[in-house]
Amino acid sequence: MAAITSNTGDITGANPPPIPLPPSPEQDPLTAEQWSILAAIADAVVPSFTSSVGNRLLQHPLRTQVYDTARNRIAQIAGASTGSDVITTYLGESATSTPEFRNIISRLLGYGMDETSRSGLLTILNALNTRAGALLLTGYVTPLDCLPVADREKVLQSWASSRIPILRDLYRSLTTLSMILWIRTSPTLGLVLGYPRVPVHGTPSKDSYAFRFLQIPRTIAAEPMVIETDVVIVGSGCGGAVAAKILAEAGLRVLVVDKSYYWNPLRLPMSELEGMEHLFENAGAVQSDDASIAVVAGSAWGGG
Fold this sequence. Notes:
Elements: E1 2-4, H1 32-45, E2 48-50, E3 59-61, H2 64-78, H3 84-92, H4 99-112, H5 115-128, H6 131-138, H7 149-160, H8 165-185, H9 189-193, E4 211-213, E5 231-234, H10 238-249, E6 254-257, H11 272-279, E7 286-287, E8 294-295
Parallel strand pairs: 2-3, 5-6
Antiparallel strand pairs: 1-4, 1-6, 7-8
């Protein structure tokens, strides 16, 4: 909630501090077995590649020629400033390489997923951990997390074209989620793509319409808060913000009400992970009911 006052203000700063992420639920939303199955699926979507014969449950071995070709291609994209060790690490990453992957999933299951969707996912994960369920859903009698990466990839491909709608939906949901979360958490993707933490040519705005921000507590106070104003605008997006500025310039007291939090410009730009958590609806994980469409909807003070 903001009260618009006068046309002054200054935005400076080019090195925004890190923004704390929301805490994970106190109670783990998945059992150890369910986590293992989910990780096995995610790491088949974004697998770890190696040029040697290693643990096929954890890595996807490639022929030396194929691996070297991939390294050379990535080096061309990344440029001379990217070291060979970064490229090796990049190829060796999987979707679950960073601990933050699990933290994001925990927050999504605990806070952002409805009970029906969560129950359906848990049922599938439990089934894939049994021989009977695995045979029915994958064609293998071995539980999914005990299959090599290459075989798990074949399972996902079969789900993509399955006649069973729930498997097609599961494929779309989990493959999209795995790729998005890897993009957010990968420590090397930005280095390979040359994508900086802070825009190189970004110029912070010098003009900002000053206002007073009021954070309304979630708990209901014993005494109601009384705010006197001339105009109340619900929503701080492009329409509401412009209307508020024009009315304030005309001398009216304007109150803008929005469900989302206000982030001071000194906190911007946020990292990929921070931005999706704090500036987008449901941390950027909004899909249609059949998981065929992913929607990235902004949700922040100032519009989405």
